[in-house]
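hey m, so remember when u said the tokens were messed up on ur end? i reran from scratch. heres the input so u can diff it against urs
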Amino acid sequence: MSATSGTTTQTGAQAVVADATDPARRPDVLFRVRREEGQQPSAWWMIGAFIGVSAAVIVLLSFVPGGA
């Protein structure tokens, strides 16, 4: 095995392709979208979702027999 053969393999950093697509915008990547500044969803949506899910769990658990 000679290191001076006719073919060389490139190691290390690779050049950036000019027309590369953003991996966060691939159709097979769920829930990972880079948005512009100021386009993030409001924190109140997450708070409301937490309260809604918590209320739904409490209501559903009230139908389980054997509670206090």
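this time it looks ok to me. The two ends are 78 Å apart (CA to CA). if urs says something different then somethings off w ur setup not the seq
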